[in-house]
Amino acid sequence: MSRSSRDFHAVVLAGGAARRMGGIDKPGLRVGATSLVEKAVDAVAAARRIVVVGPHRANLADDILQTREEPAHSGPVSAIAAGLQALSSSDSDVVVVLAADLPSVDAASIATLLAALDDSSAVFASDQDGRTQYLFGAWRRSVLEQKISELDTPAGQPVRCILPATFDTVTITGVDDCDTPADLRLARERNAVHASGIEFARESIREQLPPLAIRRVSPTDAEGGVLAEPLISAAALPHVDTSAMDGYAVSGAEPWTLREDVAYAGTSGLGALRDGDAVRIATGARVPSGATSVVRDEHVVVGDDGRLRRLPGTPVKDDSRRRGEDWQPETELVAAGTTVTAAVASVALSAEVSEVTIRGPVRARTVFSGNEIRSKGPLDPGQTRDSIGPVLPRYLRSCSIDTADSVHLDDTADAFDDLLDRSTDVDLLVVVGATGGGAADQLRSALERASATTIVNRVPVRPGGSQITAVLPNGVVVLGLPGNPLAAVSTLMMTAPAIVDALTGRTPPAPWLGYLTNTTDVDSDVARIVPVMRDGAGWRADAAVRTAHLLHLVGHNALAVVPPHISPDEPVELLPLLR
Ligand SMILES: Nc1nc2c(c(=O)[nH]1)N[C@H]1C(S)=C(S)[C@@H](COP(=O)(O)OP(=O)(O)OC[C@H]3O[C@@H](n4cnc5c(N)ncnc54)[C@H](O)[C@@H]3O)O[C@H]1N2
Ligand code: MOO
């Protein structure tokens, strides 16, 4: 049942010293650009009235009621009671009670909660693990008031004292509260990836681009592709019992009688050992049948009687590798969605897998536009050296994209139409320049004429704001990078990985995060992408970037995606650069 957004009140619990965080004002802590109490208030913005219970906060809007429990710090039930009292004139029988320590709470989670209240006395959010959050709930106001009135005093009472006899729960993902410094750190890390606005663009790309066709190739031809099916072993490793050391295969208890023959690696058909026998064996050789273990050279000695014994004080252990000890046949070794690296190819060889099923690697055509751009010969006035064309394939490669070829286009409508029309032999067109709105900027209009579907059209980030990601009716993806060289590389590094994820079915790699040591130098109203270099345990941002060249990438190890209004306590996403 959906509930009109206006028929509830909200009590936000924003007091209480955070004991596990050293007694600080937890609701005042920032995760991203807003404090936890502001997040709670924003989440219940659709309420008829909002009352915030806790110390007075000057930064809250005037239409938000503020009150305090009596005495201060007398617990959640006391705070709920104070909140209800402040909401005196009641015109709704539903009250949302929300703690101000939920970094991910938003209007959508409150709507889910309200929709689940239905006719029950109360409904509480429960997290993915089934843990119920009693301070993230929607109540019948009459039930809540009744339960509180039954208490001698609300002061010092735990929430469980007021739970109704029956209530519902509804699973809401990301409802984890923030009780410890580690919780806060995790919340800030999660936020870092979303705060800049580029994750929204990347999510659209991952959801909307169609995946490439599947190919079956030998593991050594698959590098750079992404497994479409898991890599499953075709044979056990080791294939047979083998020796892990140079030494002796022995049977039964010492002393052992040494046989004349030797088990070399690659040989087979050695006669079975009988009890009391030993035979010399090389690392990697098959252990002869009848052997009970292998003893390495360092742990044995041949005595005067010509018999083999363990040296006193050496560990009694078997230096063989048993068949299937590393893996058995039919074992999933590498998950679908993994990029085939040299290591993955090698594992396939170890596992006797002759063919793997992959998508990709993505093959791109790079396209350079701009009549002023010149690759060879001296520059005429007004011309600009092509300083990105020759190096772009290196940056594409670091995003797991192969460059098939490179073309230079005139800034004419025909040239762009022709390019989009005949590029059926690649997966991706990476167009540099022509993303702006200027007279010579042809890309958007050409995409429109080609009936392309635009997936990302501009992103609120500097540089790279004018970028575009679209898909042609034949499935070929077009990535438009701004013409300024640093803007082009920054845009590529932020957006191309998501295109690769979508086209190849790759599991998105976990974001790489770090802390800036000079946030004040790069703080801004809009998200920024800036080159960074290591600075002790953190990263120092280069705030003075100019986009017309790549000088600011020299000596820098990564680009940092800096959300608006960053604080030094907030991590930033790092986009690694060429090594
Ligand atoms: N009225 C506005 N104009 C512009 C804005 C804006 O917001 N309002 N944004 C500026 C920014 S920032 C960028 S970035 C560019 C993006 O425009 P385009 O993608 O159309 O790029 P172009 O105009 O083709 O080129 C921009 C700049 O880069 C030089 N360039 C292009 N290709 C190369 C190359 N291969 N090697 C070296 N330099 C290259 C080109 O000569 C231009 O100077 O729009 C701004 N304008
Ligand atoms: O924003 Mo442009 O994309 O800076 O150089």
UniProtKB/TrEMBL annotation:
Cofactor: Mg(2+)
Annotated Pfam families: MoCF_biosynth, MoeA_N, NTP_transf_3
Stretches with biased composition (Basic and acidic residues): 316-326
Residue numbers spanned by region Disordered: 306-327
Its job: Catalyzes the insertion of molybdate into adenylated molybdopterin with the concomitant release of AMP.
Family under the similarity heading: Belongs to the MoeA family.
Protein name from the UniProt record: Molybdopterin molybdenumtransferase
